[in-house]
Amino acid sequence: QAQLVESGGGLVQAGGSLRLSCAASGRTFSTYFMGWFRLAPGKEREFVAAISRTGLTKDYADSVRGRFTISRDDAKNTVYLQMNSLKVEDTAVYYCAAGGGSSYRTSDFYQASIYDYWGQGTQVTVSS
Predict the structure, then answer these.
(1) Residues 6+ apart with CB under 8 A from 37
(2) Which candidate, 40, 19, 3, 32, places its Cα nearest to that of 86?
(3) What are phi and psi of 39, to 5 degrees?
(4) Which residues contact residue 17 at a Cβ distance below 8 angstroms, ignoring those fewer than 6 apart?
(5) pLDDT at residue number 101
(6) Share of the chain above pLDDT 90, in %
(7) What CA–CA distances, in Å, run from 114 to 12, 30, 35, 109?
(8) Contact (Cβ atoms closer than 8 angstroms) between residue 37 and residue 92
(9) Does residue 27 surpass a pLDDT of 80?
(10) pLDDT value at residue 103
(11) Cβ neighbours around 69 below 10 Å, total
């Protein structure tokens, strides 16, 4: 099993930046593909970004593409989400997730149902 702990959230002005971190327990971090999702008040959970086991392939939601960057450091069992040019509409609780299924492709990573483990979330608030 993997336990995920997010950090790095906070309050930032529009146009600013934040970097979220998600630290995973266990020795099998490199076997998971990793994703970030977010949940805003009154909205459904939304896919944000995902990265493959090797880190070579990534996927982003159209709403964050070009502004957010996902990366991973397997030596630190950590996945990151660098968020630049933040907008008020980026305000949400951000969750990281880990998936272990071997049959999934990058094109599947936007689906929350394929992830096995979830963190507790970190609040990101962007003010105007």
Answers:
(1) 45, 46, 47, 48, 94, 95, 96, 97, 112
(2) 19
(3) -135, 115
(4) 82, 83, 84, 85, 86
(5) 82
(6) 90
(7) 31, 17, 10, 7
(8) no
(9) no
(10) 85
(11) 17
What is the rounded average pLDDT of the residues 38-64?
A: 96
The mean pLDDT of 101-127, rounded to a whole number, is 94
Tokens of 91: 């305000």
For residues 20 and 42, what is the distance between their CA atoms, to the nearest angstrom?
Answer: 23
- Kindly write down the DSSP assignment for every residue of the chain, as one continuous string: ---EEEE--EEEETT--EEEEEEE-SS-GGG-EEEEEEE-TTS--EEEEEE-SSSS-EEE-TTTTTTEEEEEEGGGTEEEEEE-S--GGG-EEEEEEEE--TT--GGGTT-GGG--EE---EEEEEE-
Mean pLDDT of 1-20: 96
Compute the distance between CA of residue 60 and CA of residue 50 in angstroms, rounded to an integer: 7
At 53 the pLDDT is: 94
